Amino acid sequence: MPVCEILSSRNMILASEKAVIADKLTPLLPEAEGLEDNPHGRSICFISFSDSCEMFVGGVQSDSGKIVVKISIFADAYSEAVKKELFQKIKVLFEQENSVSRQCQGNNIWSIIQPVLPNDFGVAGESVSLEMTKAFVNSYVKEF
């Protein structure tokens, strides 16, 4: 169920960079919830990019401000160690794939984990838990 919203100033992340970032971020998010990297796990990983034309940093409009990575994952799925590792992997990913972050040595990346409490996530009108999500992801059977 990981949901990730990436906020930045307009044109701070190029379209070509977005595609690569989304591709490389996709396996990291289910991993943070203890989910396998398989087609089912990837099918529930949602990543969106929002390029705001009006980003303010320190009260001043900025076109070269921060990149904010907000991640919603089940609260009972991760530990402090997992959180720290995810923050580091996100920083490294943006340094490698985004020219602005590379110039800033990743110091422009702000990551926020928003814990989703049990029964606070729903699909098709029904509450979904981490256990239900794990069962769905683990139900994937690779065909030979």
Number of domains: 1
What's the CATH H-level superfamily name?
Answer: Macrophage Migration Inhibitory Factor
Tell me the strand percentage band: 25-35%
SS class: alpha/beta
Q: From the 3D coordinates, which CATH architecture would you assign?
A: 2-Layer Sandwich
Q: What is the share of helical residues?
A: 25-40%
What distance separates the N and C termini?
Answer: 27 Å
Per DSSP, the total helix count is: 6
Count of DSSP E strands? 8
Strand order of the largest sheet: 2-1-5-6
The CATH topology label is: Macrophage Migration Inhibitory Factor
List the uncertain runs.
none
Q: Topology of this protein?
A:
Elements: E1 3-9, H1 15-25, H2 28-32, H3 39-43, E2 46-52, E3 56-57, E4 60-61, E5 67-74, H4 80-97, H5 99-103, E6 109-116, E7 122-123, E8 126-127, H6 130-138
Parallel strand pairs: 1-2, 5-6
Antiparallel strand pairs: 1-5, 3-4, 7-8
Descriptive report:
With 144 residues, the chain is an alpha/beta fold. It has a single domain (3-138), classed as Macrophage Migration Inhibitory Factor, CATH 3.30.429. Helix content is 37%, strand content 26%. The protein is built from 6 helices and 8 strands, in the order E-H-H-H-E-E-E-E-H-H-E-E-E-H. The strands form 3 sheets. Strands 2-1-5-6 form a 4-stranded mixed β-sheet, covered by helices on one side. The chain has a two-stranded antiparallel sheet with strand order 3-4. Strands 7-8 form a two-stranded antiparallel sheet. Strand 7 (122-123) and strand 8 form a beta hairpin. The longest helix is centred in the middle third of the chain and has 18 residues, at 80-97.
